[in-house]
Amino acid sequence: MTEVPLLSRSVLDRAEELRSDTDALRAGWADALVLKVNHRGQAHVDGAELVLEPASSLGAEPVSGAVFLGRKPDGTHLWAVRVPAMIGELADLRMIGHRLDDSSAGLLTTAVAVLAWHDSAGFSAIDGSPTTPTLSGWSRHSAGTGHEEFPRTDPAVICLVHDGADRVLLARNGTWPERRFSVLAGFVEAGESLESCVAREIEEEVGVVVSDIRYLGSQPWPFPRSVMIGFSAVADPEAPLEFKDGEIAEAHWFEREEVRAALKLGDWTSPADARLLVPGSVSIARGMLEAWAR
């Protein structure tokens, strides 16, 4: 990787020490700002900037379901709330993530991830009892046992497989339109190391054995609650490709010049009639390909 992945650029001061300080949070609410997010992960934008509204417009003190995100350099508290319906100009991370500054990128990425967790954590995974938000939105307590649960993050590996020279292996998922390719990825299983996951996923998806597995970088991917952990690995381009798990529709080895040409075309939305289209800049996959193609 030659640059920090776009959704990893956060400079947000999370101010974790304030999450349990109800007095400080109540005091800060009067001047706080709130980010409203709908169930599609969209927020109000003004051009390429997030629109933050006065928290006091929601009530005199922190409202139920609000998540404390942190504070601005001037000390202003920042919150996020789920809003069922919104009007006006809306956008999500996939649309504007590449245009947001470091502060806004971290703000929206965190808000989308934590609010999505709350949506699916209304009942305890331990005893099935209803849960209520605590710690200013960073945990939930079971009404039955008092068991505390925290926001869940699912680790996934994403790996750029190359031949050690000028070819890279890219694949198309069966649900993607033709010509849209990316690097290979998969979720980490229980009891598995990241490197073991890389080797297993690639062997399952395309039937290739890899070596020289190296860490590249990581990026939050709140769709709904993942973190993408990037690697590179080497494989034999002469080995037969086998799509064992049924997820991959096709995979090919592409020359470095083909990848460079695809990067110049833009991303998957390009209307160009090209053999290869690659992901947009908001994805860590794009950064991995750009670094390899240099």
From TrEMBL:
Pfam families: NUDIX, NUDIX-like
UniProt record similarity statement: Belongs to the Nudix hydrolase family. NudC subfamily.
NCBIfam families in alphabetical order: PRK00241.1 (NF001299)
Organism: Rhodococcus gannanensis
Encoding gene, per UniProt annotation: nudC
Domain Nudix hydrolase, chain residue ranges per copy: 151-276
Protein name: NAD(+) diphosphatase
EC nos: 3.6.1.22
CDD domains with a match to the protein in the record: NUDIX_NADH_pyrophosphatase_Nudt13
SUPFAM superfamilies: Nudix
Cofactor(s) listed: Mg(2+); Zn(2+)
GO molecular function, one term: hydrolase activity
Keywords of the record: Hydrolase, Magnesium, Metal-binding, NAD
TM regions (residue ranges): none
Catalytic reaction(s) noted: a 5'-end NAD(+)-phospho-ribonucleoside in mRNA + H2O = a 5'-end phospho-adenosine-phospho-ribonucleoside in mRNA + beta-nicotinamide D-ribonucleotide + 2 H(+)
